[in-house]
Amino acid sequence: MGGAVLMFAITDRKRSREFAAWFQGQQIPLVLATPGQGTATTEVLDWLGLEATEKVVLMLVAPQSRELVRRAERDLWLDVPGRGILMTVPLSSIGGARAKNYLLKQEGEVMEQERTHELIVVITNGGRTDQVMDAARSAGAGGGTSIHAKGTGTALAKKFFGVTLSAEKEIVFILTEREKRNPIMKAIMDQAGMQTDAQSLAFSLPVNDIAGLRRLDLQDRS
After folding, report:
1. From CA 75, how far away is CA 138, in angstroms rounded?
2. Residue 83 contacts by C-beta under 8 Å, 6 or more apart in sequence?
3. Are 112 and 203 in contact (CB under 8 A)?
4. How far apart are CA 85 and CA 73, in angstroms?
5. Whole-angstrom Cα distance, residue 87 to residue 10?
6. Per-residue model confidence as pLDDT tens digits over 140-161
């Protein structure tokens, strides 16, 4: 199925209601929000103008539309450091015609475009976010956002991996340039993979559009 995306918006908690209200004003019927924790270093936080690392991750299904992303960038001031970022991940299907009509309302423009970024998703044991991010940064990652989760199916995991998995989990989202994806994922698997206390699993998703991401080259500031 073409024309649908899963949209992620990450912002400070104090702005989360503003963001959610904006998306609902765009006739997007379902906006899910969960608290998160930023993982950027103090130096990066200062550079972006962020005062705190408490975040909210908003997730919603929307028609694929570059114009919608550009409106969000403009109306939510995503080009201002510290306001937040937005990214879209293509969906392959939505179950049921009624659900599709409810979530999408109308078809947006569908455009073929070069994908320059990917979203790395890491599922790791509770309290191991720093271990994951230290590994990711060693391969060139900038920062990420983590949320709490609870895992199930630990008995099946023991059958496949030969280890017992903790039920308390963290999910870490790392947005990165496409060419950095493989080195970052390899570093995470080497330094925080199943053979470590973190017991991390990682996968990546293609990103269609991005708003609010400023490329940082801290070496240029020296």
Report:
1. 35
2. 11, 15, 76, 77, 212
3. no
4. 9
5. 9
6. 998 899 998 876 655 555 555 5
